[in-house]
Amino acid sequence: MSQNTPPTSTDDAEGFSDAEMNEQKAVRLGKRDRLNATAASPAGGAYPVSVPVTHTIPAVRAEFGDLQADAVTGVTVGLAGRIVHLRNTGKLCFASLQSGDGTRIQAMVSLAAVGDESLAAWKDLVDLGDHLFVTGEVISSRRGELSIMVTDWQVAAKALLPLPNLHSELSEETRVRSRYLDLISREQARTNVLSRSRAVASLRKTFTDLEFIEIETPMLQTMHGGASARPFQTHSNAFDTELFLRIAPELFLKRAVVGGIDRVYEINRNFRNEGADSTHSPEFAMLEAYEAYGDYNSIADLTQKLIQDAAFAIAGSHVVTWADGTLFDLGGDWDRIGMYDSLSAAAGIVITPETPLADLVALAAREGIEIDHPIHGKYVEELWEHFVKGSLVRPTFVMDFPIDTSPLVRGHRSVAGVVEKWDLYVRGFELATGYSELVDPVVQRERFIEQASLAAGGDPEAMRLDEEFLRALEYGMPPTGGMGMGIDRMLMALTGLGIRETILFPLVK
């Protein structure tokens, strides 16, 4: 490949062999060296510290997007973008410049406007993928394409590797591992980032309107708690002690409620040393909120409002459009069903908190379900997932869970053997969970002791006995409703995408 001939098109970057990539890089490194050697020329160096931008591509599009063919404006602008299309034809060269949001504009570089030296430098030094600054008049081409008739240009950043083919889909693996290429080449990837930002901003606005206070809790903890999950462990050199990455902020947020912050929330990063699949990531974003003098009913109302407000922030409606074009309605009041009632109906037998464990074991065996640490609640929950979960498409609150799998939840006010807990399911996956919080320190200690027994029996997800948290409860925590929701999963419900698409930079091997 000649160093003086920029490629007119590129294959998908993942389609190049190592030798081809090395050849491309070598050619571009040569151009980088020539740019740096001629920094005083019209090229101006390979990586200038700044360029005199006066307008953005979206702003020019917004102001002049309705120009008729072959029109001139008399308006001179200086703008920059990445070259995503390049065509050099004799005395007139064309480049399509793309802004970060995907908006494009054409740059026209003619011999008459820039002169022999500048045009020759353009043909020698400019490649697909480069960031380019241009100055010139805003015009419309003969074909009606909004353009800049360039009078001056400068490479703003030299790309040393070729872009993927913008007319072909990147593989999912490449999209996840090289998200920067995904953002350059795919509109949906850029939309995902914008949707997430709007959704999170909406969550904060809803909380602010309802007079909740946002706080921060520790990521490094001496004891993991607040959820049933396997933690990541690390070592602090400064304290010479073993620490855990946060699996949930719950126990610290509840300390804040004890301290008098009656409405509190946190949007945070959690870490769980468990499996990864289409709905799970070891590192994920979580929202948790607690409302003094609320319960699991009021917190369900809050959760519905949070998600519906986020949907409206993204779509302007409670009906969202998924990436595949499906319309999904998040409006109205969402169904609330009982876990035991829905399981009984689906399984065809009556299952209650008093159902003998042996009966649950027998049913699970018939259905091919195995439980690592067999207790009543785990069998009920696994059987419920087997029989019921997949049928829930519209948002549904599943109410009233077994008491022995929910150590931080208040016992039900009228039904023995269950707790006031719900899980919110959307499209067949769990999106959020909510409690009437357990605030009695004596009962909480008993629950922790039961969990310690499970941990001693080999359950890696069982909670530890947290004396400092119990001490806080002993100072008195008011009746409280609490909820937790995965931000990444909320975006799954709003966009129809898998979790690796809703996380900008997911953890991969």
Topology, element by element:
Layout: H1 18-37, H2 57-64, E1 72-89, E2 92-98, E3 104-110, H3 111-114, H4 116-125, E4 131-140, E5 146-157, H5 172-177, H6 179-185, H7 187-209, E6 213-214, E7 220-221, E8 233-236, E9 241-245, H8 250-258, E10 263-271, E11 283-292, H9 296-315, E12 319-321, E13 327-329, E14 335-338, H10 339-347, H11 357-366, H12 376-387, E15 396-402, E16 418-426, E17 429-436, H13 441-456, H14 467-474, E18 480-486, H15 487-495, H16 499-502
Parallel strand pairs: 3-5, 6-10, 14-15
Antiparallel strand pairs: 1-2, 1-4, 2-3, 4-5, 7-9, 8-9, 10-11, 11-18, 12-13, 15-16, 16-17, 17-18
Helix pairs in contact: 6-7, 7-9, 7-15, 10-12, 11-12, 13-14
Enzyme class: ligase
EC number: 6.1.1.6
Catalytic activity: tRNA(Lys) + L-lysine + ATP = L-lysyl-tRNA(Lys) + AMP + diphosphate
